[in-house]
Fold these 2 entries.
Entry 1:
Amino acid sequence: MSALNPPESEESGLAARVRAGDQEAFRTLVIYYEPRLFAYLLQMLGNVENARDILQETFITVYQALPAWKPGPAGTAGHPLAPWIYRIATNKALSFLRRQSVREKRGEKYMSSMEEHVLNGKMVPFQAQEHISLEERYVTRELLRLALLKLRTDEAVCLIAHFVDGERYAEIAERLGLSNEAVRKRVQRALTALRQAYQELGLEARI
Amino acid sequence: MKISHRKAQAWLAEYAAGELGAREQQAVTSHLERCEVCQHNLAEIRHIRSMVRTLAVQPFAERSYAPLTNLEAIFASQESDRSTVGRQYRSTPEIVHAQRRPQRKLLSLLAAVLLALILVFGTVFVLNLELRVHGGPATQQRSTPTVLPHNACTTVTPPLATPTAAGAATPTPQTPLPTPTPTATPTQEGCPQSMMEKQGQ
C-alpha cells in the first residue's frame, strides 16, 4: 500500500484500524492529508504559523472523533475521509478568522497576515503574487477574509476549491461527496460573498 | 437561443467559470454584446476571480518538508482531550447535539428538584392549614369529639425516634376524648418493640 495515496477501501480500513487504537494507521493518514490540508489552510489563512496550528488542531479532532465517523453515501474519489476532514479543517479555520475579526473590532493590536509575513521575512509561497504589489496582496487577502467570514463551511470549501484552486464543479462534487447542483449553489453563494466583500473594500472603481 | 437579462445575470458566474453548456454559453455571449450592465458585472466577476486566484498554493510535495503535525502530542492527548473535542468542533451537528445533552439533563434535573420542592412545601402547607382548621382553640370547641381525636393524633404525634417527646405531646390534644380508644395512643402501637421496652424501663 502506498502511504501517499491510499485507495478508498484501504482508507476505510485505515480508519477502522485507528478506531482499534492503531497509531501507525493514523500516521499513514496524516502523511497523505498533511500536505494537502496545509496548502488548503495556508490559502484560507495566509499565515504559516496559523495554518500549522489549525492543522494540528484538525488532526487532534480527527484522531479523537474518528471512532464516531461513518462513511458518507457518495463516493469521494477514493478518499471517503476527505469531505469530513476538510470540513473539520474549514470549521477550525473559519472559527479562527472569526476570533481574529472580533479581536480586530475590539481594537486589540492586530497585524494582518501579509504585514506580519513581510515584517518577519516569512513570505508565504504564493508564486502567483510575485508580480503584484504589496498593497494588492494585502487587498486580496482582505477580500478573501471578508468573504470567508460571510460563509458556511461547505460554501467556504467551495470558495477555496473553485476560486482559489481553480477546481471544476465536478471535481469539487466528487471530493466533497456533493451533487453538481449543490456545488453550483455553494459556488454561487461564495461569489456573492466575494462581490459583497469587493464592494466593502471599495474595489468597484478599479475595474 | 435568446435569454432574458435576468437569466443572463444568473448564468454569469458559470459563464466566467466555463461551466455552462455550449448553447447557454453562446446565449450569454449574445446577450453580453448588447447589455452593458452584464458586461460590467462580468468584468467585476473576472477581476475577483483573477485576484483570488493569486492566492493559490500548490500542495507541498511529500517528504519535501519537515513534518508539520506533532503526532506524539496527538497520541498523548487522546484521553485527556476526548471531552473537549465537542467544544472545539462546534460546527458538526452530531457533536453539537452531543454537547447540548448535558445541558438538557441538567435542566431536567433542576425541573425535577423544583417539582419535588413544590410538592414538599405544598404538603407542609396543606398539613399546617389542616392543623389550624382542626387543631386551633376556636375550632376545637366547635368540632365533635369523635372527629377531633383522630386528626389530633395524626398531626401532633411526633416522630417515633424520640419517645420522650411522644409522651409529652400525647396529652394535650387528647384531652377532649370522651373515651380513650386504641386510636388515641397510636404512638405506642407504632413503636418498635425495643423502644416500648425502653419506655417501660
Entry 2:
Amino acid sequence: MSAMAATDGKRGKGSGDHRAPRLILRTILRASAALPIGWLPLPGLAADAQVPQVAASEVKRLIARSFSSSGQVTVDSVLRQDATQSECSAYTSHADVPAHVARRIQSAEAATIRYPRDGKWLGDWKEGEKIAQSGRGLQFSDPRGGPNGANCYACHQLSPQEISFGNLGPSLYQYGKLRGDAESVLRYTWARLWNAHAFTACSSMPRFGHNGILTEQQIRDVMALLFDPASPVNR
Amino acid sequence: MKAAARRTALLAVALAGGLAAALAAWRVLAAPSAAGAVAHVTGLPPGAEIARYREMLADGNPAELWEDAGRALWSTPAGPNQVSLARCDLGKGPGVTTGAYAELPRYFPDTGVVMDLEQRLAWCRMTLQGLTRAQAHANPFGSAGNPSDIERLVAFVAGQSRGLPMQVSLDHPEAQRAYALGQSLFFYRGGAYDFACATCHAADNQRIRLQDLPNLLDKDGARNAYTSWPAYRVSQGEVRSMQHRLYDCLRQQRFPAADYGSEAITALTLYLARNANGGIYDGPAQKR
C-alpha cells in the first residue's frame, strides 16, 4: 500500500476517537521494531563523538510524539513508511544504494506502474506547463482536493523562457526533439513520471502516479509539455 | 527617549530605504539564472555577487529591532510573578546570555533533558515568571499586527553569541541520543513525496528554482547555514527562529505540522548545530 493510500485525512489529534490512531500507531511501531534495520553508520560529522544506534521504531516514536496531523497531512501518513521509503532512509542518495538493493527496489516499484487505459499518451502542453510551474498541493497548508502541481521547474530546466529552474534533476530542454516520440520512448517517460524509483532506486523524484500526486490526465499534460512539437520545451 | 528615537529612525530606514534597496537588489539578482547573466553583467562570479548582495542586506538589518525589543523583554518583570528573565539559566549560569546560543541545544541537569533555546526560554517563563505552558508557548511565529515576544527574545539571545564559535557538546549520553535521533530523522523518508531532509540538503551546489540549498553534511555548508539563523526574512517581514525554519521545511517536505518546542525539532537542531561546531555565529542575519 502506498503512503498516500494510507492517508484518510481524518485521524489524528483533535479527532473524537483517540483509540483508533493509538492502536494503529502501536501496530506500526510493533511492525517496525521487528525489522532489523541498522540505521547507522549514516554520514555525519560527529565522528569524534559516541553516537548510539537508533532503531527505526525509535525515530517513529519521536515523530509520533512531536508532530500533529494538520489539514490533509496526518501523522500516520509519515509513520507508515512503505518498504522503499524505509530502505531508502538508510542512504544519503540514490548513488549510495548497492546494486543488488537497487535491483530489488526497482523491480518492486516497476510492478506498480499503470499505463493509460485508453492508450492516449499526450494531453495539452499548456496545461502541462501550468502543472510544471505549480508547487502547490499536499502540504498541510494547501486546500484539500487539489489540483496538485508537479513543480517540475523546482528541479529541472524545461521551457527556455523559464529561467528560474533548479538543478537536482537533469535538464529536460528539447526532451522530445532529442528523443523522438516512438511508442517505447512515450512508455518509458510515462513510467518514469509514474514511479521514478522503478528506474533509479531511492530517486529524489516523487512517485507522481504511484502516490496519487497527479491524475492520469495531468500526467498526459506533462507528457505533452515534454513531447509536443509545439511545446516551448521542443522549440 | 534617545533609544526610542533611534528605534523609530531605524524602523523608517528599514521600511523605506533598506527594504526597498534590498528588494531591488534581490530582483536584480533573482531575475537571471544564478550562474549566468548576473555574473555576465557585473563581471563577478556568482558566489561573489551573492556575497555582495548579503553585504548590502547586512547594512541596516531590521533584525536589530527584534534584538532591542528582546533585550527589553528579557529585563522587564512579567507574568504572575512579576519577575524578569535576569535569573534565567540558558546553560552558562543564571542570567548569562553571552555565548549561550552558540552552545545550544544542550543537556540541562535541572530538567534532565536536552533543550534548545526556545524550549529553555519557555521553561524559564514558566518556572520564573509563572506563565502556564500554554502562555509560554503562545504565538511563537509572529505576523503583521501580531508580534511574537518569543521571536524577539530569541533574536536578543542569539545576537549575544555573535562573533563566537559554535561549541555544542555531545558529552552527555542524552545529548548523544538526541544527536542520533536528529541524524536519523534527517534521513527519514516519508509522506506523499518520499522526501527526507537529505533529499535536498546532502549534496553540494544544488538549487530549488534559484534558491541555493546548503549541503548540511558538509562542514562549511552546515556552518554557513546554521550560524545565520535566526534571520530577518525580507519576504515575511519577521525574524524567524530555527523552530520556524524547520517547521516550514517539514511543511514543504509534506510532513505533518511539527509541534512547537517538540523533541523532534530539538533533535534535528542539535544535529545541525553540532555539525556547525567551530563556525563563527553570525546571526541574526537577513535573508530573502
